[in-house]
Amino acid sequence: MIQVHIGHTICRIVEQEQERETTTEITCTHAIIKFNITLSSIDFFFHRYLCTCQSFICKNLHKIIKFLTYVRAFRVQPNDTFFQKTRRETMTNFYKAVPISDHVFWVGAIDWNSRDFHGYTTRRGTTYNAYLIMADKITLIDTVRIPFKAEMLSRIASVTEPKDIEIMVSNHSEMDHSGSLQDLMALVQPNAVYASAMGAKTLGKIFHTEKGITPLKDGDSIHLGNMTLAFLETRMLHWPDSMFAYLKEKKLLFSHDAFGMHLATSERFADEIDRTILDYEGATYYANILLPYSPLVLKLMEKVTNLHYEFDMIAPDHGPIWRKNIDKVFENYRAWALQKPTKKAVIVYSTMWHSTELMARAISEGLAEGGASVRFLSLEHNHRSDVAYEILDAGALIVGSPTLNNNLFPATADVLTYLKGLRPRNLIGAAFGSYGWSGESVRQLRDILNDMKVEIVGEDITAQHVPDSDVLTQCFALGVRIAGMLAERAE
Fold first, then answer.
1. How high is the pLDDT of residue 449?
2. Is 81 part of a structural domain of the chain?
3. What residues pair up with 192 in beta bridges, in sequence order?
4. Is 318 annotated in the active site?
5. Single residue among 313, 338, 363 that ends a domain in this structure
6. For residues 149 and 155, is the Cβ–Cβ distance under 8 A?
7. Which of 19, 30, 102, 118 is catalytic?
8. Total structural domains in the chain?
9. Would you state the pLDDT for residue 202?
10. Has 176 been annotated as catalytic?
């Protein structure tokens, strides 16, 4: 609640505005105007600024009232007479649901401008996918990030009244999928809201109450009248709460974050998008989000196979929906999870005065001479998530860094911290770098690579100030040796 203290004259203006704007929900008591909104960020803004800007209020009161009316539309209560006007005026009719199957609609949101997801660069944006099942008991699968709630509501309203939703399911409680859930529960008042057992606990921590969330066990089903949803726990893929929902009658898998990608497109189906984009974004997504859980991915794939489910469609929470080449989707996940060694070598380095870069180039020439496929990644020009993508199907990780203040160069330390958390497997590697006087960086590189369980090849190579011909020859020879080892391991 905001209480803006202004004079009697302004109150009279508001009373006049009330006569014209009957839905503003503004009351006036002499010198106090109470704006009935609860959005905390808006509360802060108006409390801090409007209370001290009375002249601004006088000049722009009509616009302010209309703005508050618009803001309040996103927090209406289910018994609020304001609901119908809200639906007409703020659920803009150009956001439409997209049918993806008989009785199933995509009602999510497109985030064209997203460029970062937990440190992973999303250059092509993303989507937050939510799905509406028009069964006898209308069911909503997941929601969207809170800034996109109105878009989701508009899409739902293009098919049915949001208040007709009887069941909600939260497959994954991360806030890009549960962000609008609490508001929607208050608005719709569904008969039931389901999550996994861990999901109910997680949502309880996010919402500060577990009230209204019914936990499901692995293998549970819920009946929607003419359809059935079966549930499969997928713990740590990629949160402890994650679960699949399978709509048996449509052979449709709602797979939360699995089999998805960060990709904003107007196309809803994967077969409508360039295959090279799908391959790149799918692999990038797996490398940056699911790679640490690869052993669990393999177990899940086996578990799903043993259930003998048939899949006509996979509907993830990010990116396009799969309705063709489903077997290829599963094959990719198996291959990425296995991380079989290949002849690909990734050189990752930072440089200050190009000395470490000279060493990296010599190593790359040796690798090429030995028949390896080389990826050469300067951290001045490549992001940590690009490195993760290249590591996904690599056989070698070779890292170089100069010494700065007795430590690794910051960009190198950043990437290795990130990669260590992703836990890539089956890699060989080496450490190299230049220094001015102390030279601690290369020893630190070796220690981190050992912690990552990278098999170290040969001795560390260092150069003081500028590498001479002997050092560069060592670097070339290291590249040739690693290429030979990659060829043997890839057989």
1. 97
2. no
3. 167
4. yes
5. 338
6. no
7. 118
8. 3
9. 93
10. yes
